Amino acid sequence: MTEPTGITVDVRDFAPVSAIDTCSIWNLLSSPYLLRAALRKGRWFVAAGYVRYEALEKPRTRPTSPELTMQDEFRRRLAERQGFSEEPMTLEDLQAVAARPEVRKLGRGEIAALALARKLRSAVLTDDRGARRAAPRVGVEPAQTTPHLLGWLLYEGELTDGDVSVIIAEHEARIEATRGRLTVYLRRIHVEAYRCRLLRDGAVIQGTSTGYEGRTK
Q1: Side-chain half-sphere exposure of 125, counting CA atoms within 13 A
Q2: Which pTM does this prediction carry?
Q3: Integer distance in angstroms from the first to the last C-alpha of the chain?
Q4: Could you say which architecture CATH assigns to the domain 1-211+213-217?
Q5: How many other CB atoms sit within 10 Å of the CB of residue 78?
Q6: Read out DSSP for 52-107?
Q7: Dihedral angle, C-alpha 127, 175, 68, 65, nearest 10 °
Q8: How far apart are CA 126 and CA 175, in angstroms?
Q9: Among the residues of the chain, which ranges form H helices?
């Protein structure tokens, strides 16, 4: 399915390994229900050293209690290799992407995630609009999002329609509205997954768009 912006979201597939940026780490950890389902399906998320630094060591402005809880969980999961791992990257790996004009407006975490994905020849998981647009231009495909992950898990039957409200409630409890919630896109990808399941099962309904192309800064 192609969105109006030309960015493709196909809920029928989601890459097994994704290099991840910092915001997507928080979006994943914001819903334990969603993360558990992803891990049951064998999905794995790798972080560059700078992304680990940004998530765990870089000073945060007025962190909330849920954010501190997610930091602790990410630290533990990295140490125990439970769904997340840190992967090494050379300066040359980073410069191969950082020097490109397509990424000049991106944050360092997004650039590091793209560089790691390029090195590993893996997907990238980012909820940043600019990073998603830049990804194919720097040799990284596919570029995936947290709502895309939800859509795929629904399409695969790992999650049910009734699970969506649980996931959204968990997400909203941990991510403040001012920090960039994904609620509207989680609801829209639910509709898209439902449509694709009907098509797969032989029914034909009118197409719909998720309208999601990643958060802006």
Answers
A1: 28
A2: 0.88
A3: 25
A4: 3-Layer(aba) Sandwich (3.40)
A5: 18
A6: HHHHHTS--SS--HHHHHHHHHHHHHHHHTSSEEE----HHHHHHHHTSGGGTTS-
A7: 170
A8: 16
A9: 22-29, 32-40, 49-56, 65-80, 91-98, 108-120, 129-134, 146-156, 163-174, 183-200
Euclidean distance between CA atoms 23 and 35, whole angstroms: 15
Owner of token pair 């940004």: 54
- How far, in Å, CA of 134 to CA of 140, rounded? 8
How many CA within 13 A on the CB side of residue 202?
A: 0
Q: Where are the domains of the chain?
A: 1-211+213-217
Residue type, 139: G
The residues, ordered by sequence, that sit 6+ positions from 78 with a Cβ below 8 Å of its Cβ are: 47, 52, 84, 85, 86
Burial label, 32 (beta-carbon count in 10 A; 0-12, 13-18, 19+):
middle
For 160, the token pair is 């049910």
**Token code pair at residue 150:** 């939800």
Q: pLDDT (tens digit, 0 to 9) for every residue of the chain, 217 residues total?
A: 434 333 468 999 999 999 999 999 999 999 999 999 999 999 999 999 999 999 999 998 888 999 999 999 999 999 999 999 999 999 999 999 999 999 999 999 999 999 999 999 999 999 999 999 999 999 999 999 999 999 999 999 999 999 999 999 999 999 988 788 999 999 999 999 999 999 988 755 444 455 555 554 4
